[in-house]
Amino acid sequence: MKNAFVLIMLLALSGCNQAQKKDSNMAEPIETEPNSGIGDGAVSPAVAFAQSIENTHNKSAWNDHTAVAFDINLKFGGSERLNAKITSLTNSSKIRIDKENGDKLIYDGAEVFLCPQTAVDKGARFDMFTWQYFFAMPFKLTDPGTNWESMPTRKQDSMEYPTGRLTFGDNIGDAPDDWYIIYQNPKNNLLHAAAYVVTFGSELEKANENPHAIVYSNYVKVDSVNMATHWDFHEWNETDGIGKKLGEADLSDIVFFDAHADLFQKPENSKIITK
């Protein structure tokens, strides 16, 4: 099955020739790297919170794999936003999106390419990185350049959720001003939700006026890795937390495999997307 999948992807390549204001009582953010510690191997409570989510999702098993792919059907306001197969290296250094309409997005580690050249490029770079990041989030919480703050528990639907605030160092990714409030499910320690702002293509002050949240559910195990197969998108604010539902995504056919280098090469008949 996995070999057949890779063959299909290679044939497709040849055919196209892809903040809220801080509370004054909160601890100062701590810049972290994977397994970095604060003396004698100890870590701060904020970092330990992030690591506990990664461990519950089985980050070590995730890292044992080279690449992962999944199908996604994404809808907002009842209208389809994206229907595609998303493929990436598990370290997120290369990504590919094959849309149902035949358009392709490829990030080769340096540039983003859209194929064919006549494809509509509005939102292409946003699509390139956003949905893959939401998918891989449970395994990237303590990546280099991440900053963590401890936060109080937040009540939602009569349950108290442990939370932490994730921000990023300068020049980390396309939108280093993004922030996330991470919710952990107290019953199973899995990632429950992430409130966030989208600063890509927007001023931070304006983005902070319109935060949203993604809620993860319908978890399955894929090669011992815990993966959510349903996402719900909601309004969010500091006072009320997770609010009105805005959209949803269903994920299927999640598979790990060994990716061939050609899978992420610049395709012919493509253009570079810079914004």
Structural notes for this entry:
This protein is of the alpha+beta class and 275 residues long. The chain has helices at 2-16, 45-57, 59-63, 124-136, 204-207; strands at residues 30-32, 67-76, 79-89, 95-99, 104-107, 112-115, 146-156, 159-168, 180-184, 191-196, 212-222, 225-237, 241-257, 271-273. The chain has a 14-stranded antiparallel sheet. It starts with a helix and ends with a strand. The model is unreliable at 1-40 (pLDDT under 50).
Short descriptors:
275 residues, alpha+beta, 14-stranded antiparallel β-sheet, 5 helices
* Spatial sequence of strands, sheet with the most strands: 1-7-8-9-10-11-12-13-2-3-4-5-6-14
Low-confidence stretches: 1-40
Radius of gyration: 19 Å
Relative helix content: 10-25%
Largest sheet: 14 strands, antiparallel
Q: What is the tally of helical segments?
A: 5
Question: Helix- and strand-based class?
Answer: alpha+beta
What global shape is seen? globular
The tally of strands reads 14
**β-sheet strand percentage:** 35-45%
Order of helices and strands: HEHHEEEEEHEEEEHEEEE
The pLDDT mean sits at 84
Head-to-tail CA distance between termini: 36 Å
SSE arrangement:
Layout (H helix, E strand, L loop, with lengths): L1 H15 L13 E3 L12 H13 L1 H5 L3 E10 L2 E11 L5 E5 L4 E4 L4 E4 L8 H13 L9 E11 L2 E10 L11 E5 L6 E6 L7 H4 L4 E11 L2 E13 L3 E17 L13 E3 L2
Provide a concise account of the structure shown.
The protein has five helices and 14 strands. It is an alpha+beta fold and 275 residues long.
